[in-house]
Amino acid sequence: MHEKLWPSFSRLTTLHLGGRAKRLMLVESYEDLSVLPERLSELALRPLALGNGSNILAKDGDHDLALVRLGLPEQMEIVGREGAETFVRVSAQVKLPRFLRFCCEHALTGLEGLAGIPGTVGGAIAMNAGSFGCEMCRHLRSVTVFTGGRVQVLSAGEFAFGYRHFAFPGCQEFFLILEAECHFESGTVDAIHRLMNTHFLAKKASQPIALASAGCLFKNPASGPAAGKLLEDAGFKGRELGGVAFSDLHANFLVNKGNGTASQALELMQLAQEAVERMSGIRLEPEVRIVP
Asked: How far is the C-alpha of 20 from the C-alpha of 63, rounded, in Å?
């Protein structure tokens, strides 16, 4: 297991903000997994699973954290077919855009709406990434996780998911998603490619996907207007504070203009929550994970 001292959140997250953790631990084999709990105990550090860092807002300063990242060999392969369904095994650390290209090349349909979402397959499962009616977890046949010091294979029905949520019995705060087996129906390469491109262009036109951000900042309320509409109505579309701002394309995206700080981001986030609550009575819940 490779370890690095004082990794910087500003380099490891898509928002490019935040201070440092004490360790970055790269798990490169299942043997590394077996010694991981003991090593974390020796270091007396709280672990944090880290994929592509696309949904994290880390506070400034130094943190008593060990970032745990997968460096296992990557795989994407078709492992079987049953009736109209095709089963694909994919490693958690595979980048989501790469997995979508694999699905397209093999005419496997169902995840086209996720085009344009950064991150890894593991992160997409842990957050149940969704867009344009697609949800990552609806295509899971099984998930292999490391939790409580052991590897478990969870079949469909042994885990639960919902809006930006994934959990399983005995789920602890820290767990690692190692791989998944997904199920897809067949389509045509041309149709899948066209739909992926349509969704990507729609995101590009309405979201700041080329800028440093952590994706949607707040979850959409269970009912009523979406978070972006509430933020826009409260006057936060394009609102700036120091080096951070709410996007002028989509009010629910917080962007780092290049010289921002996490403290500025958290202050602007709080101002937005308070303004929306005064205006509508709705307290917006963060979708981005605030660390620690």
From this structure: 6
